Amino acid sequence: MVYVDATCPLVSKVHIEAERHHQNGLQMVMIGHAGHPETVGTMGQLPEGEVLLVETPADVAGLSPRDPEKLAYVTQTTLSLDDTAEVVAALRARFPAIVGPHKEDICYATTNRQGAVKAMSPYIDALLVIGAPNSSNSKRLVEVGSRAGCAYAQLIQRAADIDWRALEGVDAIGITAGASAPEELVEEVIDAFRARFDVTLQEVETAQERVEFKVPRVFREPA
Predict the structure, then answer these.
(1) pTM, two decimal places
(2) I need a surface site. Which of 87, 101, 133, 197 has the fewest CB within 10 A?
């Protein structure tokens, strides 16, 4: 039997943070969405009752920690930066001694895509986000686009899901994708537009990603 731990290193980082804080006697607050696989997985790293879940600033007011002076927080890696900042502010206001992560928990790929959507939103009439319906970071991109002023922001899985009638009269369309969406689906959507319209493509770059992760050890070792 070959066992491969394919957990994203950024998610593993959150697991390690939670375990370290627990060993130091701190109760955890998890900022995340109830029922999301990552949230369930992170909370499952510690004994029941050791992780308190909050989704919104309003949830912070209802927290009943064991000791308000011994708290730490971690976040789901695929959240909206803006929403998370509001929850963190509420936590710090109510629990000034709460300990946060040394480095932002939210995935750099999620952060970069949200920044790009904000940058392109003033110049587009509609936004299409390519991603799965259960993809948290993809759904956050739709929300970011709507908040940034896109009158039409929609999540699609591939070109076949495009609602062409909803795009009638639209001149500029933004296309982005969730962090795990394969590039071929992005190209498929662009090709679908090229088949119907005279397309001018302009890339919006707000950050360069140079982060690399090693493949799991089992794949690096000789058979």
Answers:
(1) 0.81
(2) 133
Q: What three-state secondary structure class fits 156?
A: strand
- % residues pLDDT > 90 (the chain): 75
Domains identified in the chain and CATH numbers: 9-94 (3.40.1010.20), 110-194 (3.40.1010.20)
**Residue whose C-alpha is closest to residue 33's, from 78, 97, 94:** 78
Catalytic residue among 17, 19, 38, 212: 38
